[in-house]
Amino acid sequence: MELSGNFFGVVLLCQLMLLAQLAQCQQVTEGSTAPTPTTMNSTIPTTTMTPDQICQAQTTCEDCVKVSGAKCYFCNSIKGNSNSTTGCRLYPAAQVFPNSEQCALSDARWGVCWVNFEAVIISMSVIGGILILATGCTLYRCCCRNSGG
User: Fold this and answer.
1) Is there a contact between 58 and 64 (Cβ–Cβ < 8 Å)?
2) How many CB atoms neighbour CB 89 within 10 A?
3) Strands 108-109, 72-75: parallel, antiparallel or unpaired by DSSP?
4) Distance CA 125, CA 10 (A)
5) Are the CB atoms for 92 and 125 separated by under 8 Å?
6) What is the chain written as a DSSP string?
7) Half-sphere exposure of 67 (CA within 13 A, CB side)
8) What is the pTM of this model?
9) What would the pLDDT profile of 126-149 be if each residue is shown by its tens digit?
10) Residue 146 near residue 139, CB atoms below 8 Å
11) Which of 44, 51, 72, 81 is least surrounded, with the fewest CB atoms within 10 Å of its CB?
């Protein structure tokens, strides 16, 4: 009985604190005045950027890989340019890997800037191989070795 009394006391205390916060929030919103919109006859043109333009607008690797939805990848040296510049590009959704003619896999950064795409591919292949080998060994041990016996 004593434990349930403490529990209900804690619940009641939390509810009172929540109500006090809600009342304070309501006072702040009632006391403030909303800015009145000014009427203008001019229209503001709206422009919608394409995903490719959004990627090309990013100047650093950190900004490039943080684009929402992981739509961009950063290339340390873009091929085809005479001065071999860096840049942010739209990730080719139709392909599994970025086009190696435009950017070498060792220069491509996707998700994080401190590891290149080539290292990601190699490490994922090794992890996948280990998982397949471990699964095969487990199946052999559980199914084949024990049934013969």
Assistant:
1) yes
2) 21
3) antiparallel
4) 52
5) no
6) -HHHHHHHHHHHHHHHHHHHHHHHHHHHHHHS-PPPPPP-SPPPP-----HHHHHHT--SHHHHHTSTTS-EEEESS-TT-TT---EEEE--TTSSS--TTTS-TTTEE-S-SSS-HHHHHHHHHHHHHHHHHHHHHHHIIIIIIHHT-
7) 25
8) 0.54
9) 999 999 999 999 998 888 876 655
10) no
11) 44
C-alpha distances (whole Å) from 37 to each of 29, 34, 40, 115 are 18, 9, 9, 49
- Phi and psi, residue 76, nearest 5°: -70, -30
Q: What is the pLDDT of residue 2?
A: 44
User: Which distant-in-sequence residues (6+ apart) come within 8 Å of 104 by Cβ?
Assistant: 77, 79, 118
d(CA 65, CA 62): 6
pLDDT at 42: 55
> In which residue are the tokens 């607008």 written?
57
Write down the residue that tokens 């009394």 correspond to.
5
Rounded CA-CA distance 132/115 in Å is 25
Counting as low any pLDDT under 70, the low residues of the chain are 1-46, 78-85, 146-149
What separation in angstroms does the CA of 122 have from each of 91, 115, 126, 129?
Answer: 19, 11, 6, 11
**Residue written as tokens 């491509």?**
108
